[in-house]
Design brief:
Blueprint lengths: L10 E5 L4 H12 L3 E6 L2 H11 L2 E4 L5 H15 L4 E4 L14 H29 L2 E6 L12 H21 L4 E8 L5 H4 L3 H9 L8 H12 L10 E4 L7
Parallel strand pairs: 1-2, 1-4, 2-3, 4-5, 5-6, 6-7
Bound molecules: nicotinamide-adenine-dinucleotide.
Nicotinamide-adenine-dinucleotide binds next to helix 1 and helix 6.
C-alpha cells in the first residue's frame, strides 16, 4: 500500500500534526506513501485525523523530554526506524516586549525552541545509527527578521534557525540532513491569532495573499524526501515574497 510515492515507506513523525500545517503535512505525506505518526497535545483532533488517514497518533507535549523518549521508543519498536522528523509544533503570543511576562517568554521558548532541541536530541541518534534521515524544523519569517509584538516568538524562531545549522553540521557525516522552513502568513488557527493584522500583511505581500497550509506541506515534502538530497543547514522561505521587500 505504501510502496509508491515520493515518500514511499518512509517513517515520518510530525509534531503539532493535529491541525494546521502539521495536519496538511500528515495528509500529503500519507498520500505520498509515508508511514505517518502524528503527535500533538490536541488529542481529539489528532485521533480523528489519524483515524481518517489510517495512521498513528500519540499524545506528545514537545517540551517534555520523557514524553519524547517514550514516543520515539514506541516508533522504533513498531517501525524499526524513523526516517523523517517534522518539528512543526508551535505557539504564538502577541505582546509588546515590555508587556511580556517571564512566564509567557519561557512558555513560548519551551515549546518552540526546547521542543525542537528535544526532538532532534531524541530522534537523531536513531537516524545516525541508520545512516540516513531528514529533519525539518519549522521556523518562521520571524526567525529571519524582526517581528513587532512577538519578542518571545521571534527569539524562539531565531533559535530554531540557529540550532538547525549546528545540527546540520554535526549530523552531515552520518547521512542526516537538517533544514528549516520559514513561512510567512499561512491560513491556520495560529494566523487567526494575528487577527486583523493578517489581512494587512497579506495585502502588502508581493503575491498579494496569504498561503494555504498545503503550500507549506509541499515544501516540507520536498525537504523530507530524497529529492532534496544535497540540501542541509539551509533556510527555505515560503512567504509570497515578503522577505524580498
Ligand atoms: N500560521 C502562520 O502564519 C505561521 C507562520 C510562520 C510559522 N508558523 C509556524 O508553523 C508551525 C505550525 O503552525 P500552524 O500555523 O499550523 O498553527 P496551529 O496553531 O494551527 O498548529 C500548531 C499545532 O501545534 C500544536 N502544539 C502546540 N503546543 C504543543 C506542544 N506543547 N506539544 C505538541 N504540540 C503542540 C497545536 O496543538 C497545534 O496542533 C508552528 O511552528 C508555527 O510557529 C506559522
Amino acid at each position: 500500500m505504501n510502496s509508491a510515492g515520493r515518500l514511499a515507506d518512509k517513517v515520518c513523525l510530525i509534531t503539532g500534526g493535529a491541525r494546521g500545517q502539521g495536519a496538511a503535512e500528515a495528509r500529503l505525506f500519507q498520500r505520498e506513501g509515508a508511514r505517518v505518526w502524528i503527535a500533538d497535545v490536541l488529542d481529539a483532533e489528532g485521533e480523528d485525523l489519524a483515524v481518517s488517514l489510517g495512521c498513528e497518533y500519540r499524545h506528545l507535549d514537545v517540551s517534555n523530554e520523557a514524553a519524547w523518549v517514550s514516543v520515539v521508543a514506541d516508533m522504533v519498536a513498531d517501525e524499526g526506524r524513523i526516517d523523517v522528523l517534522i518539528n512543526n509544533a508551535g505557539i504564538f503570543r502577541n505582546n509588546r516586549l515590555v508587556e511580556t511576562s517571564l512566564t509567557e517568554f519561557e512558555q513560548v521558548m519551551a515549546i518552540n525552541s526546547t521542543g525542537v532541541f528535544l526532538g532532534m536530541r531524541t530522534v537523531a541518534p536513531h537516524m545516525m545509527e541508520a545512516g540516513k534521515g531528514s529533519i525539518v524544523n519549522i521556523s518562521s519569517l520571524a526567525g529571519l527578521r524582526g517581528a513587532a509584538r512577538a519578542v518571545a516568538y521571534g527569539a524562539s524562531k531565531w533559535a530554531v534557525r540557529g540550532m538547525t545549522k549546528t545540527a546540520a553540521i554535526e549530523f552531515a557525516r552520518h547521512g542526516v540532513r537538517v533544514n528549516s522552513i520559514h513561512p510567512g502568513i499561512i491560513e491556520t488557527p495560529m494566523a487567526e491569532q494575528l487577527g486583523v493584522g493578517t489581512d494587512r500583511i497579506a495585502r502588502r505581500t508581493p503575491l498579494g495573499r496569504s498561503a494555504d497550509a498545503d503550500e507549506v506541506a509541499r515544501m516540507a515534502l520536498f525537504l523530507a524526501s530524497d529529492e532534496s538530497s544535497y540540501s542541509t543547514g539551509s533556510e527555505f522561505i515560503i512567504d509570497g515574497g515578503l522577505n524580498a521587500l
